[in-house]
């Protein structure tokens, strides 16, 4: 590589190219060595090359002139090609090569980004189309905090791939099929026996209150104080009860599912009728299909409200979508000799696994394995996807390992992990309650996702209103100078951003305890409120606001990023420059 030759790609990619050249010179006989580049402690630099230790393990005792990992690291640093992006290098510990980036190069790169667009930094991937399977709640169960991680992480991965010019098929693989629907439908018929007459009323009540058996529902009026009208359902009439100036807690939307599950577990007669209802549903009987469709639609509308609030786009293709394809896929696998009989079930034996991969249950029914195999087949053959990414908790890791192994044995996927098409499971740790136990829908203490979003928004809005009417020793800021719509939009942006960031900042693979106070620190909300009012309305120097707060005491939150963004916007606004015009300038003044 010639000195100062321009290398495109991310900073990490560009450094990898430089260290690749150095490694080729340092250890010419180790041709399969890839540069190990990682961010390092800011005290030592910006990035670090960590190849020395592993290289020394390979070459010691082979007659090499090196006497340890540190001399290997020193040679790697010495052989590094000259580049304007590197200001200095140093050796630390057992041969770690620390790199400090040139501030002049960073400024030049930012200038180039402003002119050519941020897309110049996006990684170049060989894959053209990918499926990201995420969120995927079960029908008739309300989304709770346990669904948060899959939804947020999956959306983030999809955005990153889209930024890298990959066509992303965002799939919501909802649980809309299976034995539980016999239980739900039978329970619905039992509570409303004359379905032809009252089914619309029953479903309508559920849709209006987001709970089939809830007696109270709320309607939010448009007003400064967010008055709430409370109504009571009496027979077929809706009667106004009272008007209040505070929020009511909405009862659990999963009550219908819980009640039917309790009945299923305790009443053998009901259980038998529910099992027969599954047969009727799968057989296509109109009455059962209609009830199933209505239940699904109610849940779907509830989920969509959550997705809209979080700015998440998904296309639903649930379990029922793939059901017609299952027999053909299983026939293909059978012809390839992958499926065997075992204890009345049809299974695929996976080497190294204690239990087989059951694709047809002993009663002849399909299950998650048969559905997931079919979904993978469909995505490869019908949707022509090259990369399938499944975002679920780590507890499902073995299931996906067996799924991918079966697909490789069938010839759907190549044997290695570095060739396309390929499939990956992106696992994550669980969201735990204050008691250290997993959040579950059937728990009566579960925190619903919609309630979390309401709480996030209300706390941020309260901070905006409170701080907006207080004097900051500069001037008086009136919350009334903002419209109700502006307050709502700002509270949503900060509140929902806090929810997303609080999840993403945690180690993906570890569990974390959900805590409202840590996620929605009132001091942090107040900080942003001060930032909003002072910068947007009165031109206060934002850096002075930092004097009122110890940032290190407020926690690692989304508001730090929003605060920085607001400061940048304030600087641009005060400059009087048009950002779009600046982008057109080929050379910015220093």
From TrEMBL:
This is arginine--tRNA ligase. Belongs to the class-I aminoacyl-tRNA synthetase family. Its EC number is 6.1.1.19. InterPro entries: aa-tRNA-synth_I_CS, Arg-tRNA-ligase, Arg-tRNA-synth_N, Arg-tRNA-synth_N_sf, ArgRS_core, Rossmann-like_a/b/a_fold, tRNAsynth_Ia_anticodon-bd. Gene3D superfamilies: Arginyl tRNA synthetase N-terminal domain, HUPs, Isoleucyl-tRNA Synthetase, Domain 1. Residues 13-101 form the Arginyl tRNA synthetase N-terminal domain. SMART domains: Arg_tRNA_synt_N (SM01016). Keywords: Aminoacyl-tRNA synthetase, ATP-binding, Ligase, Nucleotide-binding, Protein biosynthesis. It comes from Rhododendron griersonianum. One of its GO terms (cellular component) is cytoplasm. It catalyses: tRNA(Arg) + L-arginine + ATP = L-arginyl-tRNA(Arg) + AMP + diphosphate.
